[in-house]
Specification:
The complex is a heterotrimer of chains A (503), B (287) and C (269). Chain A is 28% helix and 22% strand. Chain A has 503 residues and is of the alpha+beta class. The longest helix of chain A is centred in the C-terminal third of the chain and has 18 residues. Chain B has 287 residues and is mainly alpha-helical. The chains are: A alpha+beta (503), B mainly alpha (287), C mainly alpha (269).
């Protein structure tokens, strides 16, 4: 774990360490298989959606009990859902299900129907994030249905989980899972230290391994360094298109020009970035969605090769002129702008340095400014005092409906121009229309059609330049068996109940 | 007489702490990035939730009001609740202070011991080579960033206090060497030497009183130095002390925690320097 | 023997200084040119000291970085030492409650979280400052923030001197306070001030790199010894690529030579 978990309440989880603890200690109705990206029954043996995503009926598993022995029934699910949608609790998951009160009808101990006021797109896979709490247990949220339970918490140092004796899952032979007796989650921020301890055998699994460390590990113990393939994590560069931003007027014109953005995108050598910064463990981004997202990725999109000559031509078509090694716009202003990025991430700083060099032949002068994360956040969400921003975006969810607030022009999380009262360009309006259409539609193929078009527009207009998609790298101790790192979180231990030590 | 002096000292310390806390709080509040939560980037949140998130910092917007409520809480023994870690500040500090204090105390002691051990031979024996070697060693250690020192210790498996000692030693050595050497050139010391008095005697009776005030002041300042160095070392070594807490609080702009940490550091610094001053005055008076 | 050492040191320093001034002629490549096919290369004829993680020639970066660090770090150290000397001596000399107040404010200065002031300074600067301006501001900040600790030691020293015989004698002769400070007190504070100066230079060189984390400091792609030293944080790579120690070695060498040539550091009679 890279930080201290902030909460042990499964419904209030916002940060990654808390999510790790939640994954290991609580159970969900429907599980998304991290490798196949298909939904699997977990605590619910079957389910059925109705009325266009507004209603879902679950048939629950029998004979399941919580970690402290309290029996599991539909009442617990009802209790959890009501608690989650309670506005006083302010659970971050509640927003995914839409506003308004939820109606739960329990019919028997193992069957219930949940009705939402508005249709929810992709309703089923949302339940992968909803951990079931016990309605009656005296331990409240600490009683879980997951393979492990929290045994010891040493703040600032580590967290120890021991196996849940009442875990419901069994292997084919009937033996109760999990195989492991306990898990120790160490709070370790320094990656070098983490790798050192891995080598010494004190740590067995590392997620999100740095490419440099991966390379070194692969050189020593090839079996320990595992590359799960391209992940959902990207690096993106976008320009500030906010109308009221405190920028010079001529810069605003540049950033709003499609040819300018596309030219910058074409000038960047993505292959070099993958090769030098990420040691080949990344791929140039074909668009805003990663190929790892098997269903939703628009397979027609291919990464565009870099072409500085073409980029220059585009700029010249827009009225820019290259004079004595310096690019100037129509009014003669030299093209110079800054890109801000967060300072904790060495790889990102290197990417910025490489982009700086890539833009030099075009006569564009790029200033790289590394800021601490809160200052950067303030600039991109509050006062818009920035020109370009280089950040990595992590998509935890596969379904595009989870990213509505990224794509809608009126949303606060729309990076390059949030909170637009009405879409300021035609393509913004088009994206709005398509995203709303995919959210309203029920049929997956129809939704995919809409979203494919959104991706096409994003590549054409390049409001945010998608640079690379990084691979999911993990370190797995040779002493463990059955570990198959996936691309989705939690990479190495998504099947933690089946992991065991080799004898 | 000394009661009045003591009361004056204590009231000055308290006043400084109050002002220090307020200044620290103002610095944090006015710095960019205050009140901005990384959670805001979560695309799943609706507009209402985002607004609620942004408003959750409203209580801390007005620095004076926040500080007043903080002081009122402190009188009750409640130091506030850390925003980024969600736990009472008192518990956090109670857990982490012993680790850091132990490391700092050992690091300071170690650093001073080595520094004096290397500086004294230079003063007493006047052997050039010894002095040059010590200077080179301290010079090399000065050029290493604290993070690198910490990493080296991690690699070699050394304890955190040793890393602190390595950071403290070169700075203390330089000063103390210069001060002791300067004191050794004073006329009465040379006279004592000419009379044939032994090295240790000269040291105790002549050199030490001359250099004492500044050395003691240095000791007071080195406390603050050690605390400052503890932050990067604890962060790199993942040692659960106050330094690591301070770093995380700074990154998260956690106002309640930072105000408490500022007051704590100010208290320790003041106490150390006050003690140094008193010791210096005491060593001066017998003359 | 002593003269040979001094001459040798002077020679080395002259070499380093001229190399940094002539960096344009001497470096095999531009300091920002990325040889993307050779990241982290070992030393070879093309790259005498190897390349860094982006394929930039380390020797060129070292030479250009010398300019920044050798010029500005001593300047900042001088500023910090002067401030410490003046403020500390004045405080110590005044005595009584002004001295105690000054001491308290110095303690306060030491305890405040200056990280936030630095971040605020960065926020008030425009994003597109010229490298020269940002450098200047960086080292001004370093100098302005580094005075409090030595000032306290200076204050203690001055307070001790204040009641000593020769000061009293000088005052009895009717010597003015300012003259007293300049001609009698400050020279006696030389050990502390010179120690402070020599300590500050490498510390500031390293601190400049830490300021880079906040957006101040030397901007990409300009090299400085500070950000070259940051490469050492990847310690396992250092074992594989010992050329990363070159800036450390050079820094220690330069500091050592400085001390060898400057006379009277021993205060021996």
């Amino acid at each position: 774990m890279r930080a201290e978990p902030k909460t042990f309440h499964p419904l209030l989880v916002t940060d990654e360490p808390s999510e790790t603890v939640r994954y290991l200690t609580s159970g969900v109705l429907i599980r998304l298989n991290r490798v196949t990206q298909e939904l699997e029954p977990e605590l619910a043996v079957s389910w059925k959606t109705a009325s266009g995503g507004r209603q879902i009926t679950f048939q629950l598993r029998d004979g399941v009990s919580f970690s402290d022995g309290a029996p599991f029934s539909a009442e617990d699910v009802a209790f959890t859902l009501r608690a989650m949608m309670d506005p006083n609790l302010r659970s971050p998951m509640a927003d995914s299900f839409g506003p308004g009160p939820v109606r739960v009808e329990v019919s028997g101990t193992a069957r219930l129907t949940v009705t939402f006021p508005a249709p929810v797109a992709g309703l089923e896979r949302l339940f992968d994030q909803v951990s079931i709490l016990s309605a009656q247990s005296p331990k409240k949220e600490m009683a879980g249905l997951g393979p492990f339970l929290v045994a010891e918490h040493q703040p600032g140092s580590h967290l120890r989980l021991t196996r849940n004796p009442n875990y419901w899952k069994r292997e084919a032979s009937g033996r109760r899972l999990p195989y492991l007796d306990s898990i120790r989650l160490d709070i370790q921020q320094n990656r070098e230290t983490e790798m050192l301890r891995f080598r010494r055998g004190q740590i067995h699994l590392i997620n999100n391994l740095d490419p440099e460390l991966f390379e070194r590990l692969a050189a020593e113990t090839a079996a320990a360094a595992q590359d799960a393939g391209v992940s959902l994590e990207s690096e993106q560069l976008w320009f500030n298109q906010v109308a009221r931003a405190p920028l010079a007027a001529h810069k605003k014109t540049w950033f709003r020009s499609r040819n300018f953005r596309a030219a910058v995108s074409q000038a960047i050598q993505r292959q070099d970035i993958c090769h030098v910064v990420f040691r080949g463990r990344a791929m140039p981004a074909p668009g805003p969605v990663s190929p790892a997202n098997r269903f939703w990725f628009n397979a027609a999109l291919k990464p565009a090769p870099s072409n500085p000559a073409e980029a220059l031509r585009r700029l010249q078509a827009e009225g820019f002129e290259l004079q004595a090694g310096l690019l100037r716009d129509r009014q003669g202003n030299p093209v110079e702008f800054s890109v801000i990025t967060n300072s904790g991430n060495r790889n990102r700083e290197r990417v910025a340095a490489m982009i700086q060099q890539d833009l030099k032949p075009l006569g564009i002068r790029l200033n790289v400014v590394t800021l601490d994360f809160p200052s950067l956040l303030e600039r991109i969400t509050r006062n818009f005092q920035y020109e370009a921003c280089l950040l990595g975006l992590v998509n935890v969810d596969l379904d595009p409906s989870a990213q509505m607030n990224f794509w809608l022009s009126s949303a606060s999380n729309h990076p390059w121009n949030p909170n637009q009262k009405s879409p300021e360009t035609l393509w913004e309006a088009e994206i709005d229309r398509l995203m709303r259409a995919q959210a309203a539609a029920v049929e997956p193929q129809k939704r995919k059609g809409y979203f494919d078009e959104v991706q096409q527009i994003a590549v054409r207009e390049a409001p945010s330049i998608d640079l690379v998609f990084k691979n999911a790298l993990a370190a797995v101790s040779p002493a463990l068996r059955n570990v198959t790192p996936a691309v989705l979180r939690p990479q190495t231990y998504w099947n933690v109940e089946r992991i065991y030590f080799a004898k | 007489m000394w009661i009045r002096r003591a009361v004056q000292h204590v009231s000055l310390i308290l006043a400084t702490l109050l002002v220090g806390g307020l200044l620290g709080a103002t610095l944090v509040r006015m710095a960019p990035g205050f009140g901005v939560d990384p959670q805001e980037l979560d695309t799943r949140l609706s507009e209402a939730s985002l607004r609620a998130l942004r408003d959750s910092h409203a209580a801390e917007r007005n620095v004076l009001r926040f500080y007043a409520s903080y002081l009122a809480g402190m009188l009750r023994g409640d130091l506030g609740i850390s925003y980024s870690l969600g736990r009472p500040v008192r518990d956090l500090l109670a857990q982490r202070i012993p680790t850091t204090f132990r490391a700092v105390a050992m690091g300071l002691a170690g650093g001073w011991l080595v520094a004096l051990a290397l500086a004294l031979p230079a003063v007493l024996s006047r052997r050039r080579a010894c002095d040059r070697l010590a200077l080179t060693l301290s010079g090399t250690l000065l050029c290493l960033p604290s993070a690198v020192v910490a990493l080296l210790f991690l690699l070699l498996g050394g304890p955190v206090p040793l890393a602190l000692a390595v950071v403290v030693f070169p700075r203390v050595f330089r000063y103390s060497r210069n001060l002791l050497l300067e004191a050794a050139t004073l006329p009465h010391v040379l006279a004592a030497r000419a009379k044939g008095l032994g090295g240790l005697r000269i040291l105790a009776r002549h050199i030490w009183p001359a250099a004492a005030p500044q050395l003691l002041a240095l000791a007071g300042v080195s406390v603050n130095l050690a605390f400052g160095a503890a932050i990067p070392i604890e962060v790199v070594c993942d040692s659960p002390g106050v330094g690591q807490l301070a770093w995380q609080a700074a990154l998260a702009r956690d106002l309640p925690l930072l105000v408490n940490l500022t007051v704590l550091v100010a208290l320790v610094t003041q106490a150390a320097n006050c003690a140094a001053d008193l010791a210096a005055t005491a060593s001066r008076n017998p003359r | 023997m002593k003269n040979t050492a001094r001459h040798l040191a002077a020679g080395i320093l002259a070499l380093v200084f001229s190399a940094s001034l002539l960096a344009g002629l001497l470096s095999p490549a531009r300091y920002d040119q990325q040889f993307r096919d050779f990241p982290n290369a070992s030393p070879s004829r093309q790259f005498p000291l190897g390349t860094d993680e982006l394929g930039r020639d380390r020797l060129s970066r070292l030479l250009y970085g010398s300019r920044v660090s050798l010029l500005l770090a001593p300047a900042a150290a001088l500023l910090a030492t002067l401030l410490a000397g003046v403020l500390g001596a004045t405080a110590g000399y005044l005595g009584g409650s002004p001295e105690r107040l000054a001491a308290a404010s110095m303690d306060l200065f030491l305890s405040l979280p200056w990280l936030f002031l630095l971040v605020t300074v960065r926020a008030t600067l425009p994003l597109n400052v010229s490298p020269l301006v940002s450098l200047g501001i960086t080292f001004l900040l370093l100098g302005a923030l580094g005075w409090a600790a030595p000032a306290r030691v200076v204050r203690a020293g001055t307070a001790a001197l204040r009641d000593s015989e020769f000061i009293l004698a000088a005052r009895a002769c009717g010597c003015r306070s300012s003259r007293l400070l300049l001609r009698h007190v400050l020279p006696n504070l030389k050990p502390v001030l010179s120690a402070q100066f020599w300590i500050s230079i490498p510390v500031f060189i390293v601190s400049e790199a830490n300021l880079g984390l906040l957006g101040l400091g030397v901007a990409e792609p300009l090299p400085s010894w500070g950000n070259l030293l940051r490469e050492l944080e990847n310690y396992q790579a250092v074992l594989a690529n010992p050329c990363r120690l070159a800036p450390l070695f050079l820094l220690v060498l330069v500091m050592g030579c400085f001390q060898a040539i400057l006379p009277r550091e021993d205060f021996t009679a």
